[in-house]
Write a structure and sequence with these properties.
Distance between the termini: 37 Å
Bound molecules: S-adenosylmethionine
CATH superfamily: Vaccinia Virus protein VP39
Number of strands: 9
CATH architecture: 3-Layer(aba) Sandwich
CATH topology: Rossmann fold
Order of helices and strands: HEHEHEEHEHEEEE
Structural class: alpha/beta
Strand content: 25-35%
Radius of gyration: 16 Å
Number of domains: 1
């Protein structure tokens, strides 16, 4: 029996459902969680019940590794410790989930742009990008411009209210001195063009 976290009350579960309901997620065979954690990995295992899930975390990020190992028990989950900015993902994926990872780029020594470019280099047919709208480390205008320039199609763009806003004080990220409250999540469902491989 597979053990996953019950995410049915999580706003991220609702967002995933609403954003992907037109996709045949049950048919997906290979998916990747680019910046993983027990919530996003469990959502993928739940909505993609026939897929192998590659869960990528930054090397040594035990905040995420330990809960992934302890809260989830599934043969379909593979935890991969790799810096996305230094890794070439050769596999092809049906889907890539990018849930709250972009805001952590600078925490692990990468620039926002570098992490975003490397994520979009992953050979996935579809991407769901979700991050905190108010996070000063996440440049949504840049995201949209890059996607258009590189020929990706934004199938759906939607802003969701965060039912549990959190206040992040100035010192959360050493290199970032602004404070903010996470009131909304900005999301994009993106399709990769066939001729990009
Ligand atoms: C806020 S957590 C994501 C939470 C998770 N998606 C969830 O919903 O449970 C950010 C994740 O991004 C990962 N991350 C950030 N920069 C990364 C990088 N350059 N390479 C690999 N993982 C990275 C962190 O290790 C962490 O797993």
């Amino acid at each position: 029996m597979e053990k996953i976290v019950n995410t049915s009350k999580s706003v991220h579960d609702k967002i995933f459902y609403k954003m992907t309901k037109r996709l045949k997620t049950r048919d997906f065979k290979k998916v990747i969680d680019a910046g993983s954690g027990k919530t996003s990995a469990s959502i993928l295992l739940k909505y993609c019940p026939n897929a192998q899930v590659d869960a990528v975390i930054f090397p040594g990020d035990n905040r995420k590794k330990n809960p992934l190992e302890n809260a989830i028990g599934s043969d379909r989950l593979e935890i991969m410790e790799a810096d996305i900015c230094k890794t070439v993902f050769r596999k092809k994926y049906d889907f890539c989930f990018v849930n709250l990872s972009l805001g952590e780029a600078t925490r692990w020594g990468n620039s926002f742009e570098d992490l975003f470019h490397h994520i979009m280099d992953i050979k996935a047919d579809y991407f769901l990008i979700e991050d905190v709208f108010e996070d000063p480390c996440v440049h949504f205008r840049y995201v949209e411009q890059y996607l258009k320039e590189k020929g990706f199609t934004i199938l759906k763009k939607k802003k969701f209210k965060n039912p549990n806003p959190e206040h992040y004080p100035k010192n959360k990220y050493e290199k970032y001195k602004l404070e903010y409250t996470s009131k909304h999540f900005q999301t994009y469902l993106v399709k990769r063009n066939q001729d990009k491989d």
